[in-house]
Amino acid sequence: MKKKKKGPVISDKLWLLLSLCTALIVWYILSLGETTGRSFPYIHKVIPAIGTMIEREVFWKDIGSSLLCVGAGFGLGFITSLPIAFLMAWYTPVQKIIEPWINFIRNIPALGYAPLMVIIFGVGRKPAIILIWICCFMTMSITIYQGIKNIDATIVKAARVLGAGDMDIFLKITCPATVPFIITAVRLGLSAGLTTLLAAESTGAQNGIGMRIRSLANSFDSPPMLMYIIMLGIIGLILVKIVDIIERKLTGWQEKI
Amino acid sequence: MAGENLIKLKIDNVYKEYDGRSGKTVALNGVSLDILENEFICVVGPSGCGKSTLLNIIAGLLEPTSGSVYLDDKKIEGTGVERGVVFQGYALFPWRTVLKNVMFGLEMKKIPAAEAKEIAMKYIRAVGLEGFENAYPKELSGGMRQRVAIARAYAVNPEVLLLDEPFGALDAQTRVQLQTELLNTWQNEKKTCFFITHDVDEAIILAQRVIIMSARPGRIKRIVDIDIPYPRTQATKTEARFLELKTEIWNEVYQEFLEVRK
Fold first, then answer.
1. d(CA B88, CA B173)
2. Average pLDDT across chain A, whole number
3. B145 touches chain A (CB under 8 A)
4. Is B35 helix (H, G, I), strand (E, B) or coil?
5. B194 and B242: one domain?
6. How distant is the Cα of A89 from the closest Cα of chain B, in angstroms?
């Protein structure tokens, strides 16, 4: 008669709330400590920092500038990685020549070659966008390429024996079959874009979350700095949620293993 | 009908070799066979005897190194809708519903959507999947998926149906059920069937002639006429003639299997 699962059933929303409470308690404990308290001020000091930053007229500019950089860099990365991924999948020489270099550059932290971009493009938003573009492109082209390569050959054969020509195969087989990989690439690309943001905004940006964190760190102003770091996390979460929704709409047919 | 003894498919001295790491491998070594119109042929043989290679050559998915295959005296070059294929792994399009899967070949033929839907529904009903036309492949069992694949192949009305171990991945009960259904469909709407299997029971229950292939290099070892009249049912499997043929074919195949193992 005894069931293995005991105790009350807790809904996912309640779990989320519990998880949030745990984090707040950990934060509070860190605030209590003398040394850890320097980096983790009490929550009632951090939240009003939003107001201070808005008053200083930098809050919305920072967020706007960072979103613009990530958006533009990611957008360019997406547009360029698609054709390159297809070319690599279709033409072996293209893949043989390009892929090793993508893998080579992919493993270098963006902060390393950020100065090179500044030398070419000067300071400001331009080198920042280009840096994010490069990082998004690297991750996404490889992911999409591998997706196209992994399309089940029998499905293509099945289409062929049903009378599909090359164009039909591309539009009605390759494209839909690649969609799940494109979504994975978008997910990884956005994450790459966000993590490159700090490196990108080290290129003499006027505004931006990454730039602001750096400058607040220099003045040991930890309440607004912590608030900015949390903002970065929240933006990441929102982007992941958006991708989740798109994924559910587009690839509901996919078999989950 | 006059067409009863017409040669539909003529396999003429087909030879196929592959370039492998350890040099050339001969998959088919001079295979010749005449298949009559509306005939049901089953091919049995150990793994590696080239039966799938032969099917792929007839389908036009592979080219023979030498020799040719003729369909109605016309040499086969590339794929064609007059030769439908059912694959072992179903090969359904996972992003398309059952209906859209069955409609694929009709779309390729540029048949108007309304008419294509009507034809597709006819075959979905024929394989007993009415009510599932809007389901995605992931929602279906293995047996149901293979029914979709059969309906999809039938919908474009091919003259020849090539089946590559279509029931190999199914459980014994589903397999028997699909065999019966395939026989019924074939008797209602006659087609030339080229069916690969390694299940001897399956071959005898379905085929008019069973082709036994030998491996390394692949060639036809023997052709056995199955002189059991249709309609055949599961009860047929207990008849003396069935058991006699089964022993005969099974021994031949097993001998080949042992040869391969050497």
1. 17
2. 89
3. no
4. strand
5. yes
6. 21
Range of the domain at B18: 2-82+159-261
pLDDT greater than 90 at residue A101: yes
* Displacement of CA B4 from its chain's centroid (Å): 20
Tell me, what's the ipTM? 0.86
Mark whether B43 and B107 lie in a shared domain: no
The beta-carbon neighbor of A162 closest among B95, B138, B156 is B156
Residues B134 and B212 in one domain: no
End position of a domain, from candidates B157, B183, B213: B157
pLDDT average per 10 residues of sequence, chain B (262 residues): 71 88 83 92 87 92 92 89 90 94 94 93 89 93 91 91 90 87 86 92 93 86 90 87 92 85 73
Cβ–Cβ under 8 Å, residues B71 and B82 = yes
Whether residue B87 is contained in a domain is answered as no
Angle at A190 between CA A189 and CA A193, to 5 degrees: 85
Nearest Cα residue to B169 out of B139, B135, B138, B146: B146
Bridge partners of residue B83, in order along the sequence: B160
What dihedral do alpha carbons B52, B257, B240, B165 form, nearest 10°?
Answer: -20
From the candidates B55, B62, B102, B104, which should be mutated to test the interface with A, based on the most A CB atoms within 10 A?
B104
- Tell me the pLDDT band of A123, cut-offs 50, 70 and 90: confident
